[in-house]
Design brief:
Blueprint: E1 10-13, H1 29-42, E2 46-50, H2 56-67, E3 74-80, H3 92-99, E4 104-110, H4 113-118, H5 124-140, E5 144-150, H6 152-158, H7 160-173, E6 177-182, H8 189-203, E7 221-226, H9 233-243, E8 247-250, H10 264-274, H11 282-285, H12 288-298, E9 316-317, H13 320-328, E10 346-347, H14 355-364, H15 374-388, H16 397-408, E11 416-429, E12 432-445, E13 448-456, H17 459-471, E14 482-490, E15 501-508, E16 513-520, H18 523-542
Parallel strand pairs: 1-2, 1-8, 2-3, 3-4, 4-5, 5-6, 6-7, 7-8, 9-10
Antiparallel strand pairs: 11-12, 12-13, 14-15, 15-16
């Protein structure tokens, strides 16, 4: 179903504020600006920048955006209602919000009388006055207001009359959006549906029956803000939209406190591709996977390969029957076209593979084969033999491409290993242990022997540094390569220190990433295999049309 512009859902991103409350996640001003500009390019209408009254970093963020504004998104400042028994016009916290200079402000207030008494330590009547005074003051200062009804669903379930009164107060004070928040993340979709219907009936919000004065919108609209503590944040948001909600709040990759927020990387394609709502332009939707991965890099968290829509495995096919069917018609095992969200189909190779997998994987790497080609069965046989020894090409596609090139007769080793040594020193300091390593390596390129040494904070880092140092004058491209991940798995733990080890190494050139594998009873030998293939494959990516690699003179 094609989305219609006349059927919009307003997306509100809170990655920079609510998302940054995830444990272990910290954003610098530069990080926030970079993510904000990516969200702006993605076409997100509202981007919540933070709470300038509570965080000096957020003050600087809003100042920066005044100097270099976003192209299309409304950046939103976030704040609570005024303090109890203090006029909004005299509250310094609200002055900081006004100083941020945003046209839109999001104010959150208490919906649950439990929080009013236990959290604010005030009366329900004063809480209503706080909501009214804050919104009216901000409106008098020319601001447009989004009201986040904190703990809305819990408040409504415990005291529906009071929860509704807080919402009606915000409506009458001039809030243009009333956002129902499942702050504790404990509500289920069936409850969301029922409660949203009851809210619309009780308040008139969202049903074209109760216009408010001085608003550019004919009526206030409903929004929803869900958390994922019951693993239903996306489902709850979709349930709210089905009942009439027109703003959805969430974060990229579902980042957020505790179990996270509603994941916009799932919500946007579900709303637009499945339900026919208009959220962003189709060409912007095709950048969704890129924005997801870039955000994970900026916040320094590994991308979730199994994330719906945007994960590397979201359109990966492993079983031979699946692969064969997808080759004929992708609809057999894919619910959307991966390109619609900027992803791509992947054929996974493992010991469960058949010829269909090998053929499909070969095509994805630009190798044209057919079932009658002897190389096909040679690759399949080699694959299964190596996986029986502990190799895992499912997670190391770069190594599998090199295996295919070898079987097809056009893999040329860019250098030859003559030998290497690694020396490790454990240095004890006061309450600290220092692990330093020195690697010496000898390689040959075009008959020329090169001997180099390098230090690292561990044997693999030292070995990687020494190898690059030896090769960089022949292959200058490797200067930008980085070893971005290193995983070790003991394959037969009962063998003790003589156990076989599998090493997976992820490398990157700053734009692409690829994974290679090594297996040996010697962990350094396994690491060397993976590191060497990582460098070799990176060189192939630099010149993908070449069958063989040639060093620079």
């Amino acid at each position: 179903m094609n989305p219609q512009p006349s059927n919009p859902i307003w997306i509100y991103d809170t990655t920079l504020r609510d998302g940054s409350q995830r444990e272990g996640l910290s954003l610098s001003i530069e990080d926030k600006l970079r993510i904000a500009r990516q969200l702006d390019e993605l076409g997100i209408p509202f981007i919540e920048g933070g709470w300038p009254g509570a965080n000096p970093k957020d003050v600087q963020f809003f100042w920066q955006l005044k100097e270099e504004p976003l192209k299309q998104a409304e950046v939103v400042a976030f704040c609570s209602t005024r303090r109890p028994h203090k006029a909004a016009a005299e509250d310094k916290m609200l002055q900081a919000i006004l100083a941020a200079g945003t046209r839109w402000v999001t104010i959150f207030g208490k919906s649950w009388d439990l929080h009013v008494r236990a959290g604010l330590n005030t009366s329900p009547e004063e809480n209503l006055a706080m909501i009214q005074d804050t919104i009216e003051y901000l409106r008098s200062q020319g601001r447009r207001v989004i009201y986040d009804a904190e703990h809305w669903f819990d408040g409504y379930k415990n005291n529906p009359e009071y929860a509704l009164q807080t919402l009606i107060t915000a409506r009458d004070a001039g809030a243009e959006w009333l956002v129902l928040c499942d702050t504790n993340g404990g509500t289920l979709p069936v409850e969301v549906s029922q409660i949203v219907r009851e809210v619309i009936k009780a308040t008139g919000v969202g049903n074209n029956e109760s216009p408010i004065p001085h608003s550019p919108f004919p009526i206030p609209q409903l929004g929803i803000h869900t958390h994922n503590d019951s693993d239903t944040a996306v489902a709850n948001a979709l349930a709210g939209v089905h009942e009439g909600v027109r703003m959805v709040q969430g974060t990229i990759n579902g980042y957020g406190e505790r179990c996270g927020n509603a994941n916009l990387c799932s919500l946007i394609p579900n709303l637009q591709l499945k339900l026919g709502y208009s959220c962003i332009e189709d060409e912007q939707l095709a950048r969704l996977a890129q924005v997801s991965r870039l955000t994970s890099e900026v916040v320094n968290l590994a991308p979730d390969d199994h994330a719906p829509f945007v994960g590397r495995s979201a359109f990966a096919h492993k079983g031979g029957i699946h692969v064969s069917a997808v080759a004929r018609n992708p609809l057999t095992y894919e619910h959307i076209q991966p390109e619609q969200v900027g992803n791509q189909r992947r054929i996974v190779i493992s010991d469960q593979s058949g010829l269909s997998n090998v053929l499909a994987k070969a095509r994805s790497f630009g190798h044209e084969l057919n079932k009658q080609d002897p190389a096909c069965r040679q690759i399949l046989g080699r694959l299964k033999a190596l996986e029986s020894e502990g190799y895992q090409f499912e997670a190391a596609e770069a190594s599998f491409d090199l295996l295919m090139r070898e079987a097809l007769g056009y893999r040329q080793q860019p250098f030859e290993l003559k030998g290497f040594q690694v020396q490790c020193d454990i240095l004890q300091g006061i309450n600290t242990t220092y692990d330093s390593a020195l690697a010496t390596i000898k390689v040959a390129v075009n008959g020329e022997d090169i001997l180099e040494a390098a230090e690292g904070n561990g044997p693999v880092a030292a070995l990687d540094a020494a190898l690059r140092k030896a090769l960089v004058k022949f292959y200058p491209e490797i200067a930008v390569y980085q070893l971005t991940d290193y995983k070790v798995r003991i394959l037969n733990g009962g063998s003790g220190t003589s156990a076989k080890t599998r090493v997976l190494v992820e490398s990157s050139n700053g734009e692409q990433r690829w994974t290679t594998v090594g297996v040996s009873t010697n962990i350094l030998e396994a690491s060397y295999q993976a590191v060497v293939e990582g460098i070799e494959y990176g060189l192939l990516l630099q010149c993908p049309t070449k069958k063989a690699l040639m060093p620079s003179n």
